[in-house]
Fold each of these.
Amino acid sequence: MALFGISISMWLVGVIGLSLYIVLYVISITIYGKKPGRNPFVLPSLLVKKPERTADDVINNQSARDSVLRQNFTGSRIPERLDAIVIGSGIGGLTAATLLARARKRVLVLEQHDVIGGCCHTFVDKGYEFDVGIHYIGEMRPGSFVRCLADQLTDGKLMWQPLDVDFDRVIVGCVDGGGKNRSVLVTGDRKEFAKRLAQEWPDDAAGIEAFFSLLDRLKRGSKLYWGLKLLPLPLARLLIKSGLCGLFSAYFRYLHISLKQYLDQHISSESLKSTLAYCFGDYGTPPGETSVVLHALLLNHFLRQGGFYPIGGPSEISFCSVPVIEKAGGRALVRAPVSSIVCNETTGRAVGVTVQRSDGEYTVLAPLIISDAGLINTAKLLPQTALEKSRIPRTLTDCQLRSGHGAMSVFIGLRLPPGRCASTDPAFDDIRGRNLWLLSPSDSSAAETVDLQSIVNAYLSLDPQEAAAADPPLLFASFPSLKDPSWPRRRGDDRLTCAIVTFANWDWFSQYQEGRSGHRGRDYNELKNAIGRRMWELVKCQVPAVADLEVELFQVGTPLTNQHYINSPRGEIYGLDHSLSRLAPDSCAQLRPEMGPPGLLLTGQDVAICGFVGGMMGGLLCASAALNRNLIADLAKLIQADAKGILRRERPKAE
């Protein structure tokens, strides 16, 4: 009892001390803190275009699009009196740049590739257009926080098409047509999805109920996780070490529990475990290595509003964002590889960047440098002295950070026979506005033997020749042309596209790293095409409607492809691996925009979490640091006020 009393007393002392610290911090900020910058947001209702835009309004003129997205870097195109330079044009970089532009800052975005967008860009080959990273997004109903943020970035011009109410089809077990499997449709109606699972696995009804109850609890606790990144680091770490975060939020109590560990404790059926964990490919870390909290965050993202796709394709995101940057006097330039971040030798402050071009080296200066290149790449850009004085090396070590798993992609262009139209042909109804997930072991035909962690580990441990002959344990297949209502007008209704993604081991392809893109040799092409063809065969087994269509285009991308186009160190597509150590509370506090030397901020996935929304949140946090204001709170208040009509010139009339 005495020990118990002492622990209570110590806890009270800690709470009192923490409260005093917070009060003193607020007072110091109020009296001595930097003045907040301009609020970049406008009322969401003012961004609604009238008349409402439709799929027919998507600009299809390639010259017009290139004039926005493919402006080559030249010295004469560098704006004068820059306020900030952004390295990289992924969604994290674009978010930070557009928000600063809305706050009347002049921003220069520098992209090493030949088109703006990062993983939001698309490419066209033989008339077929493919998305390379954005396959579907959740929470895009008008009025949601995510939608309102996207509208701010794109000036309200970006349109979103809801996918089918059953937006994902999951097949667990044998997927090559030779054995048993389980097939489940995932719906945006959370209660309906839980009901379907209970009907399919009645013996696990209690575990299913517990799992969805956990989703609800974790949904409510995510605000504190993001809030830690806005607090000063010492205060954030004090909150964590005091135990108060775990006391007030289940989010922090579950972060150390892996998805596999949780499912093993609550679910008996292996096929149900796989079904509940099916979309771990959306963040790229197997169930035994990541937190159940991250998975819950992803499921909550989709199970309340379903999935959405940008009308006109993902390149519309950057096409609508760049004009916002230009309106404030900024530019977004391509073929501008940044070779180093320039730091003042005396103060260590970041003051500019060096752009390495074939015609020479350019030094561009600005009072603020923002990196969307990822934490590992950013470390390589800094001078050694400035790097050692920053928090980046310690963060990489303390948080045990590493690159995520590599990925492979297959892009297939299909031609329909004369007289058939993809947009109306009922043969494609099963894949219209719907993704396909295939989870299967290579040595079993029984759905109940699928242990995702084991089969992923076994696959990634194969040597290249074995991988060429094996079935990937996880496949994600998307049919982008059947998601986009503007496709028939833009690309033709007799064309259909398919994109397939799976895990890959960087070491399978690393020996070809020195070769130039497109010229890596016969052995490389044979290896990647063997894996790619098997991926396509497995998809055709489950989608017979596409099996007999003419294949006009077949391209396979490897981790080396990802490294070339998005500069990922080991061919990963989600930045830092979303491991338990990366997601730990202290890692959350440390991974923030202010990790580098003074004058440098980081943005994107590595600051927040992976994906389109994670990248946007990273950009929002970065812009908050740059403008010295809590933009998450600013936007939330504006959305709430706008919904109530408080700030409108004319309040809505009562009906």
Amino acid sequence: DNLVEGVEHARVLHEWWRVRYNTEHPHSSLGYLPPSRYAALVRAEHESSVAMA
């Protein structure tokens, strides 16, 4: 009944969780956007402001 079948399996699960959390999971501190979407918006705003300068 173990969800984790060993150390290597735990590493794989942790990496999956870490990537998902840091790319897909919405964060309240980012306006409930996932980090990847928030970064894209910040990058676009920065590029727009640089182009106007």
Amino acid sequence: PKHLDEKVAMLHLEKLGVELETLRKDQADYIGVAVEGPFKPEYYRY
């Protein structure tokens, strides 16, 4: 599932020393996603 793919990606980036920020509500609303994800539409293939 997409939410697990995104969680694994976040963990990989964390291991590489990348710091990710959490979306604010206004940012999530602007791009049409939930703050907690998933961040890609269902038709998007990884």
Amino acid sequence: MSPSTNSATYSPKRDVIIMATATAISLFGDAMMYIVLPLMWQEIGLTALWQIGVLLSVNRIIRLPLNPLVAWLYQYISYKHGFYIAMALATVTTLAYGFSFGFVWLLTARILWGVAWTFLKLGAYLAIPTLASSEDRGYLFGLHKGITRTGALLGTLIGAILLDQIGLMPVMIGFAVASAATFILLPFMSNVRLTIPSKEEKRVEVSYAQLLRMRFIVSLLVSAMALTIVFDGVLKSTLTYLLDGHMTEGLMIGALLIGVATMGSLLQSVRVLWEGFLSPALGKMADRSRSPKTLFAASFLLTGLLLIVLPLPIPLVIFILVVLLIQLLATALEVFNLAIAAEASEQTSRVRMMTSFSVAQDLGAAIGPLAGYIAAEWFGMQALYAGIGALFIICGIYWLRTSDSLAQANIHYVERYVK
């Protein structure tokens, strides 16, 4: 579907930049909660440590049932209107974080933030395939991902610095004002309706049940969930623990002693630093490749090998190098996965495919930390990483050997069975 805008002024890249910028700013408050809750939980009215875990996870859990509902709404509103709703909620919730009114207050704010994030994430997932062509779909997804990731980093850095200087309430008020300021940008987005094709563009739509009977689609969804379980769950929550085994005395750089917490933070942040320019470049690589699924498979294979090596007793320098390579490949895997999913949505159903993809990601992000620590407790850290490394290698072999035939089978299924 072509956007119903004036072709002389219409710019898909401009729309994606505005969407990504608004999303990045909306993340300021959320990123601060990961600093504030563990450090100041009593000061902001919490009474037990378990409440911290609930507040940091409820926004992810609420997205699971919300994805289909928001996808349905996007069939009747433009994605610009969806972003208006999301940024209004982001402004309110960020402001609410600054007031210490206790657990129920913050729980309500975190649930509303989950609603806002569903509109933002799913809006982008639906809009970019609508706006893009096959020549720039991966690039636009990469551009959006790179800008958005920067928001979490800026929120963490700026918020942490200002928190010690002026306190929580002024910081959150400032971040809320920044979110509200995005309403200046939103009118410049094109007013595109997502899934109402013209008669000439009318195509068969695939149901959720039919999607889940396609091996190609199920492979994409399983891959998306595996990526979020490992990168947003296991690796993020256990990296500092692994690092502690390699840095028993810290690391001296000149006269500066780098401790485990600092090094862990640096290794986590470096991925965000390079995603601003690396994600668009990787997206463009996927657009120009004859077989982006081969790139996807190769990235899975190499990442699997590195994950197996990571918990082994290796020198610190090698450990850091392995972590950096895994973070690099994580960016590549997520961009390639998005590009392939967006292409598949054009053959099936844009709304149902990208909604299913978003649910798979949210489910993986929700269960990743818990599943990782339970597995580490039962089997040990080396066994955990050997298991997820083997899973990635299996995924890589699967995509390498069967991706083309699966894609063809997917097209044949739509042509033969979907009426």
